[in-house]
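Hello, quick one for you while I still have it in my head. Could you read through the record and tell me how the tokens relate to the sequence? No rush at all, and the record is pasted right below.
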Amino acid sequence: MSVKVGGVLLLLVGVLAGRGAMAEPMLPVLRYDPPVNFYRSAIQPPDDYAFNEAAAWLPVYPFRPVTVDIQQLFQRTLLREWIDPRFREGALAAPPTIGRDSVPGAQAVLIARFGENVGGPPKPRLRVVLIAGGAAAIVDLSAQTAASWERAWPAMSATLASLRVDSVAVPPSVAGGPGAAGQVVAGLYLGTVTDYRPNLQRPVGQGDAVRVLQYYLFSADGRVYRGFDLSRIPGGDVSRFDYEAAQREDPDNAGRYAAQGDELRIRMGRQLEEAITTAMPKGNRLVINNVGYIRQ
């Protein structure tokens, strides 16, 4: 099997592009063509794709800064600790085969082929790590069986072949916080998004698109948390929510926000790499990524 290594993933890195006499901060953007006949969950990160015809998955993880030798770390751990618990592998059936490839705009691309020990025939997996500007992103492919892999592979390989790295200007900073607008934004906003759930009563690889509750919780001083489990809010009292604990325990869904005129700027993630820009709330309604959220 040969691999040639698009949805948008963002990460702030120290790449500079000159414009006149000034240098403007830029960030790399991993673009790709989504896999055909895969369902994309609205819950992210990662960008989570599930094959419609068999049990196969293709999650795409955002770039994040790295301060260690990422190539050595990949050799040791396959970056398993970066993988969402839903997709994280257990014991390996055999040592992985690690190679290299290239993607336009990436400085290096590492590929690991391995099988996961699931108590029967190994579960096939392929992990692609893209390195650019002191940061790394992951495209992680897996299937429940070799037969499922073969059925999904044409679509997955087409997505891998479409990968390319561009650069865009860094989104506006949220360093200034919301100021007085924090009193306008602060609160708990509820909305519903679509998620894909496997249906164990149907043939392998089939599931249902279900509507699930999602919320954004904003503090008046510029902190924000995105979640699904309202029990995380003690007694439903948003004033008791522990943003510091959320940042430690679930950093991908914690962040900061700022207000600039009619614009609300939200940055989420360990290094505030996920950028969201939307309009300020109108009344009790806030729209994020085309989903309407109502303040409670």
